[in-house]
């Protein structure tokens, strides 16, 4: 029975990944995807996940290039608020942090099949991830914001004004969920950055991305000086995801509380300009 | 900036070319084995091989990559293959099946009279294969093989679904830094590689042009 | 003793009887023509002699040796068939030259492969190859193709290709040279050069079996003629007699129909 469930879930996940990769767009697949991933990871971590990680000596962190949370410095070293904290957590566990850029669509499959040990990449806590993984207590506040060209920003100040626009959004993301709720159709992209590129190139009128990312990546003095963000669609929180049933989740929560009390969290957050979003412990 | 992007993309191209070369190295002989299986006199073997070829050719390569990489872990809790290894395995299986059809077409297009002429001249089966039909088969499969090789170069882009960092992945990574052009710049590298392949195949066709 | 003895050969494809109770002898140095309409079984008979088809019944003897006996599986081993078929040469209707080899290479190939299997080949490699080449050139010269030795088949006319094919078959010195409608795939103006070559082979007392539609040619060149219809031998006798004074009604009808069409 367990095997059968897994087989079904593999087929569903593959179908989902493909439907997204092909062109995305249809929002109905988002709901089924969370169900599929949920059963996929239902029985991943049997014994202690922590001893598994400690035995092999590395904590494989699944992430994407997502400034200011995870990105490379001039030497190619991974840095960022999440990256630095992940290194600290690895040290806390007595292992090495190993960063692996993954295809975000496959993050729960990566976790479940032990391709990675943790998803730590400014991940918004959604139903999909709470069903499919063991998620930590939230550590950052975030929201989904609408990005438009700066010269048109004045026309779009509330959700009603958005209905005529064409949207791009990262598929399966929290932003996509928001658009689904509003009943606004969109083009699904692989990453938030791809969605931004759609707007920058004029292929779409607007996109929805994380507030944290918008703060760091658009506006004057950034890569996209002609874009700005207007409407905030919701409030949400970032969390870190471990395998279903993993004892690493508790270890993380303890670690984070200690690091917060010592001041390490705020110190690191200030380095990357996200101190205002960090949740008080 | 152009230089640093070029260097980064070349790094990705290295992975792309490795996948390309290793796939050819292993899929070309495997394809011949599959072709012989598909033409075997043993009916169950023939059915089995045809079935496999049908499934592999009838499903998207991207699904095959996902299944080979994630399947063992999801279904049997087995440790995953290395990412590049899984990508390579998918490509070998997929391309061997395509190659097998090309081999089969080439072998079956040789007139029966060529075999019979060899037989009545007292040649053994292997003499007929190596001395008579092989070069004729090669001549016939060179053009379709050229197409497959070029498709293979471009198909390698698919492996980024399992986070193998080939050239397009490298190009895409710049988008996050606000640079769009490196992604489009990757096309130049594909063009160069495929240009070289095209010239090689044209040369081979010309070399084999001395007979009809 | 006849060179070739064919005894009670039968062949069927499924329910269709292609050959029924075929028996005949061929003496050394004689030319035998087999005539009959398409589908009469003539080609199948030639293919049986060359081991391209396996008869369901009967025996084939060459120089008194039983090469094939349908009742004796030990005569049908693949390894030995290779040696046995060298008693026969076969010239195909559609030439079947090897396109990647020149005329000379086509003639030499089989002989070279056989020579390579000889134990003394390594020691006398150069000498043997020179012998084979000299013989190949001589054969092409006999076919009137000395100046075409280095041409590839696609550079030759149909008549020239067929003459190369004859040289190729002769290179292995078969006891019996078989022709399967050697001029049927040729344009009418090219048949003459091929027939001329076969005629000169007959004059040199080459033992031959010729399946042909050319009645005048069969009458003039062959010593014996077999007329086949629907898988059986209807009439068999000296060439001139069978063509000019056939004894059987079916032979007469066939020849009358042939005369009308040509």
UniProtKB/TrEMBL annotation, chain A:
Alphabetical list of InterPro entries matching this protein: Solute-binding_3/MltF_N
Record's signal peptide: 1-21
Domain Solute-binding protein family 3/N-terminal, first and last residues per copy: 58-276
Gene3D superfamilies hit by this protein: Periplasmic binding protein-like II
UniProt keyword annotations, A-Z: Signal
Protein's UniProt keywords contain Signal: yes
Database matches in PROSITE patterns: PROKAR_LIPOPROTEIN
Name of protein: Amino acid ABC transporter substrate-binding protein
TrEMBL record, chain B:
A Pfam family reported for this protein in Swiss-Prot or TrEMBL: BPD_transp_1
Residues that span the membrane, as ranges: 20-39, 51-72, 84-103, 183-204
GO CC entries: ATP-binding cassette (ABC) transporter complex
Keywords: Amino-acid transport, Cell membrane, Membrane, Transmembrane, Transmembrane helix, Transport
UniProt GO MF annotations: transmembrane transporter activity
GO biological process: amino acid transport
Membrane topology value: Multi-pass membrane protein
Subcellular location: Cell membrane
Domain ABC transmembrane type-1: 13-201
Family: Belongs to the binding-protein-dependent transport system permease family.
Protein name, entry field: Amino acid ABC transporter permease
Source organism: Faecalibacterium gallinarum
UniProtKB/TrEMBL annotation, chain C:
Keyword Iron: no
Domain ABC transporter as annotated: residue spans: 4-255
Pfam families per UniProt: ABC_tran (PF00005)
Keyword hit for Nucleotide-binding: yes
SUPFAM superfamilies in the cross-refs: P-loop containing nucleoside triphosphate hydrolases
Origin: domain of life: Bacteria
GO molecular function, one term: ATP hydrolysis activity
Keyword annotations of the record: ATP-binding, Nucleotide-binding, Transport
InterPro entries in the record: AAA+_ATPase, ABC_ATPase_HisP-typ, ABC_transporter-like_ATP-bd, ABC_transporter-like_CS, MetN_ABC_transporter-like, P-loop_NTPase
Name listed for the protein in its UniProt record: L-cystine ABC transporter ATP-binding protein YecC
